[in-house]
């Protein structure tokens, strides 16, 4: 087996896998290095939401749609579970409902297949949503649920068997002097290096990382036990707090009023960046979260109170048949305060792509397509 490749990819999380898929489909010999036995970072510690609705109108939303299109092709070809369930944003306050109306009528959103629903209509498509007090729902058919644990575990074998991608797990990349890739398991040769692992970027190019402006964000998340066989929640869910989180809502004129109210009545929710999302993978479990702690606030220890706050807010709008929490965990991802991601070329033949923040699952295949095109031309 050759140790000389056209392109080496660092990181077997979803961004690394997406780059490997595009590059190998272009006929390149690709090897992927992953320092663990399987990727275990942010790519497996999330909701599994391919979530275009969170992206602002324009190029980012278009990129998210393109990414979803590729996702569906890959998932179908690999035989991996996915659910085109769509998303449902719920409003229980008048100002939140007005934001949803403004969102739908905004010029940048008019071409989207959104639908405003009353409480009775919401109950028909989302049987576990609590409808007393519900003012309005916003349904979008685009959002797609995947199981991040299954995807990250099973895609490597699919890429290996169908496109000849080689995977070197339990292998850390220690340095790159083109074309030599120095690893914990000896030297490989690759004409180009694409780095998609945040921590390994810090190790490989520490000065660039230090000056990149990237910050780390910690999320606390949970899973409830599997629901009765065959019972599904319908669309993935979000509620009023989510309006403050995604930039797609930023232009709504009523949003500042929502923020002021929540800063007064729910100050700790704002302080810890809590907004509650719900998804259901193919296992039937319910994924719940999340919180956002940045920089110096990050600790290896979870704050139980934050989980309690998430569950308390969830109880306002959602009740599955079985709500016992089976798993709790935290994830950490890198994000840039002002840029949607970091794309850098620190040396000849080296491309770094990281810092996608909480949109990694959504943007991965679309962003990788753009970056791979540049790599192939260089």
TrEMBL record:
Sorted UniProt keywords: Flavoprotein, Oxidoreductase
Any GO MF annotation of the entry: oxidoreductase activity
SUPFAM superfamilies with a match to the protein in the record: FAD/NAD(P)-binding domain
InterPro entries, sorted: FAD-dep_OxRdtase (IPR006076), FAD-dependent_OxRdtase_HpnW (IPR017741), FAD/NAD-bd_sf (IPR036188)
Presence of the UniProt keyword Magnesium in the record: no
Ranges of residues in domain FAD dependent oxidoreductase: 6-373
Entries under Pfam families matching the protein: DAO (PF01266)
Cofactor: FAD
Any single Gene Ontology cellular-component annotation: cytoplasm
Domain of life according to the entry: Bacteria
Entry similarity comment: Belongs to the DadA oxidoreductase family.
PANTHER family for the chain: D-AMINO ACID DEHYDROGENASE, SARCOSINE DEHYDROGENASE-RELATED
Protein's recorded name: TIGR03364 family FAD-dependent oxidoreductase
Native source species: Humisphaera borealis
Organism lineage string: Bacteria, Pseudomonadati, Planctomycetota, Phycisphaerae, Tepidisphaerales
């Amino acid at each position: 087996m050759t140790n000389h490749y056209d392109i080496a990819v660092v990181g077997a999380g979803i961004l690394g896998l997406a780059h490997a898929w595009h590059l190998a489909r272009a006929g390149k010999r690709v090897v992927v290095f992953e320092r663990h036995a399987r990727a275990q970072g942010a790519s497996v510690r999330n909701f599994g939401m391919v979530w275009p609705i969170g992206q602002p109108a324009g190029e980012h939303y278009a990129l998210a749609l393109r990414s979803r299109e590729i996702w569906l092709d890959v998932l179908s070809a690999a035989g991996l579970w996915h659910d085109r369930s769509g998303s449902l944003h719920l409003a229980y306050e008048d100002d939140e409902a007005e934001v949803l109306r403004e969102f739908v009528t905004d010029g940048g959103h008019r071409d989207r297949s959104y639908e405003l629903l009353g409480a009775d209509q919401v109950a028909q498509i989302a049987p576990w949503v609590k409808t007393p007090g519900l003012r309005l729902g916003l349904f979008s058919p685009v959002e797609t649920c995947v199981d991040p644990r299954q995807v990250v575990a099973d895609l490597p074998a699919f890429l290996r068997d169908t496109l000849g991608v080689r995977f070197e797990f339990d292998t850390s990349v220690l340095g790159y002097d083109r074309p030599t890739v120095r690893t914990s398991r000896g030297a490989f040769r690759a004409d180009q290096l694409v780095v998609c692992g945040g921590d390994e970027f810090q190790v490989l190019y520490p000065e660039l990382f230090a000056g990149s402006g990237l910050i780390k964000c910690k999320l606390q998340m949970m899973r409830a036990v599997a629901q009765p066989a065959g019972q599904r929640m319908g669309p993935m869910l979000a509620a009023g707090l989510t309006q403050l989180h995604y930039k797609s809502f930023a232009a709504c004129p009523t949003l500042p009023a929502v923020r002021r109210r929540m800063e007064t009545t729910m100050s700790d929710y704002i302080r810890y960046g809590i907004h509650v999302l719900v998804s259901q993978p193919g296992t039937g479990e319910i994924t719940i979260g999340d919180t956002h702690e940045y920089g110096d606030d990050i600790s290896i220890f979870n704050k139980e109170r934050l989980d309690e706050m998430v569950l308390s807010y969830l109880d306002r709008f959602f009740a599955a048949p079985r709500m016992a929490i089976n798993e709790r965990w935290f994830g950490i991802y890198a994000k840039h305060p002002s840029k949607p991601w970091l794309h850098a070329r620190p040396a000849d033949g080296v491309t770094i792509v990281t810092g996608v923040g909480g949109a990694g699952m959504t943007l991965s295949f679309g962003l990788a397509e753009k970056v791979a095109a540049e790599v192939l031309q260089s």
